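CO-FOLDING WORKSHEET

Operator: S.A.
Ligand of interest: pyridoxal-5'-phosphate
Run index: 332
Mode: holo prediction, single chain
Checklist:
[x] sequence pasted
[x] SMILES validated
[ ] output reviewed
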Amino acid sequence: MAAVVKANGYGLGAVAIARALALAGCRRFFVSRFEEGLELRQEFSGHDIFVLDGIAGIDPEEFQENGLIPVLNHPGDLEAWAGEASRQDRKLEAALHFDTGMARLGLPASLIEVEHFDSLRRFELRYVMSHLACADTSDHELNALQLMRFETIGRAVKGVPLSLANSAGIMLGPRFHFDLCRPGIALYGGNPVPSAPSPLQPVIRLMAPVLQVHEIDRKGSTGYGATFALRPGMRLATIGLGYADGMLRAASNVGHVELDGENLPIAGRISMDLLSLDITNLPAGRLRPGDWVPVIHGDCGIDRWAAAAGTIPYEILTRLGTRLKRHYIPAA
Ligand SMILES: *Cc1c(COP(=O)(O)O)cnc(C)c1O
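OUTPUT RECEIVED:
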């Protein structure tokens, strides 16, 4: 297993997470950007750090000086890294990424047939990898096709360790595992296959403070656009959490928070810094200004918020704002 800690560890803090994973024995990390690799390199000297973006736009010497291993995605990457290797007059570590059907990053699968592929001799190939487009849909025909193409590539580069599966790819079964899996979302408790029950435990909890409680005594509305109608007898809590903190506006009037077994719907539009909860179902006095409400918690986790906002748990995590304080609780 390698851990994918790109995008600041899916929004949760790459360095803190990589530290915990390293303590658990993780030796290999994948990031997307060169700068993300540098940040990790300052913490870890002996660990492998692979940069998925490849070299594009970065001085290859900087990769080499910082001990970052580029994932070479296209012929230009190969050339740049081979050039650096010949300047150094030694082999340089690299991973090769082949496109087996996603048309996003990666060398065309046909390149592998070009046996005279000269620059390969300049590399110490750590992995040959590819990435699945539809792993979260287990019966999608592209999975079998990508697997077949990847197996063909694997035969051609005999002896080089192979890596194909992300979190959802792991769930597709052992044929997809090869020598190295690259889970990301599964490490952070997100369900890689939304159509099936999650086999994973949540790892984050998001709490936000109650700023004000309203006892409604006349008809009215709450929030921008007056989209949520208020009736006498309702109770509302204004929470210090908004879209600037990553609460997607798309969850306005659809998401809910769970407290004491009660569903507390988001009432009205989510604002930049605030949202309103309909707390009518809670006993009076249960929530007061200064109390904390579990917004992402238990069954009301990132998968459910993603469904409410019409997105995926990855987006829920990576949007969590910089203003949120992150506390890391060591594993028991
Ligand atoms: C992001 C990424 C992963 C991890 O994907 P998850 O779905 O989060 O497990 C693995 N490999 C590549 C190439 C990626 O870009």
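REVIEW:
The pocket of pyridoxal-5'-phosphate is lined by residues 4, 6, 52, 131, 166-168, 182-186 (CB under 6 Å).
The longest strand covers residues 206-215.
[x] output reviewed
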